Amino acid sequence: MHQAQPIRAQEIARVNQGVIGRRLFTLATVGSLVFLGAFIVALLLSMAWYTNPQTIRTILASPELAFAIKLSVITATLSTILSITLAIPAAYTLSRYTFWGKHIVDVLLDIPLVLPPISLGVALLVFFNTPMGTAIERSGLRFVFEQPGIILAQFAVVSSFAVRMMKATFDSIGPRYENVARTLGCSQTRAFFAVTLPLAKNGLLAALVLTWARAMGEFGATVTFVGATKMKTEIMSIAIFLSLSSANVEQAVALVYVLITVAAMALIILRYVGGESYRIE
Q: What is the C-alpha to C-alpha distance for residues 70 and 271, in angstroms, rounded to an integer?
């Protein structure tokens, strides 16, 4: 009887320790989520406190900012189309084929993802000072400090990102479906377009949305390669930089709100096209 009481006390202590441990774990996980959410909300509210909707509407109605928004949309769309067009076959090759030097190619494609974007801008400037780059410029296709350079700079930043997203999509689609199609008489090309690409639809749409949103917010490579000229190479990120340079904080805040709206819309679209795991309930 005396031995049973210490054993029971030990069991109760273990149960209490388990309950306390679960509560501490829940507090740590939920607390981290609350902190991060509150941090982002605090940043948004601080910008809302600094200005007001009427001021934002007035600023956004200016010709300069309308130009920046239009140029951003056009260049981001073109660089995204170019990136996805090349990313689909490149990602398919990495996903389906084994070849000598594949790991080297993998590393090369990851370099733009880990480098600061400004480094890519410097690399582009150096390239166009080589004989090959100079020949391109002299041919009439000018990039340095010109609007086509914005597309090239955005492409340099987002193309590897697009390849990675498409490779993950193709990796999730087994080659069995293509093999079945080929046994039924389809060529490899027809099997890709009739079977694999439709199965990759959600991943493709997600890659399009996120690549476009990333291109919209690109700054480092672009400002290094094409400069920050008003009403010429002034995309939204550069417009924010120019606004802060002239101490026009309200104008910078207005443009930040535009970019936040674009990012929010991109993420909402992603939830709906990225499969069940991304859907908003």
A: 26
Q: How long is the chain? A: 281
Read off the amino acid at residue 62.
Answer: S
DSSP-assigned letters across all residues of 33-80: HHHHHHHHHHHHHHHHHHS-HHHHHHHHTSHHHHHHHHHHHHHHHHHH
DSSP 8-state secondary structure symbol assigned to residue 115: S
Say how far residue 184 (Cα) sits from the centre of its chain. Answer: 39
Sign of CA dihedral 55, 56, 61, 65: positive
Q: What is the pTM of this model?
A: 0.83
Q: Is 159 exposed, middle or buried (0-12, 13-18, 19+ CB in 10 A)?
A: buried
Q: Please calculate the CA angle 246-59-48 and round it to the nearest 5 degrees.
A: 90
CA distance 92 to 178: 12
Residue 157 structure tokens: 């930043």
pLDDT digits (tens, 9 = 90+) for 234-255: 998 998 899 888 888 888 888 8
Banded model confidence at residue 281, pLDDT cuts 50, 70, 90: very low
Structure tokens at 223: 């400002």
